[in-house]
Amino acid sequence: MSRNRRLVSDQDLQEAMERQVSIRVFQDDLVVDSGGIIVRFTDKTVVTQSGVSDITYHDRELCEFFEMRSR
Q: What is the pTM of this model?
């Protein structure tokens, strides 16, 4: 069973990036990305990567980010 932790602050995103945990991204209550890791973030954008050439840019104001961790 997995637990989800919401990533809100820069510190939350930094910890998730350093530990390379999988994240799930929601926009307008829909899952728009799942299983990728955070490779970079700014105050406006979070960049995730789920494969060698699969890089996605997410707007921090429009999206919600959740860490997926195993129990």
A: 0.87
Q: Does residue 71 lie within any of the structural domains?
A: no
The verdict on residue 21 lying in a domain is yes
* Structural domains counted in the chain: 1
Range(s) of the domain holding residue 43: 2-66
Question: What amino acid occupies position 54?
Answer: D
Summarize pLDDT for 7-39 with one digit per residue, the tens.
999 999 999 999 999 999 999 999 999 999 999
- Residue 22 and residue 35 in contact, taking contact as beta carbons nearer than 8 Å: yes
13 vs 21: CA distance, rounded Å: 10
Contact 25, 63 (CB under 8 A): yes
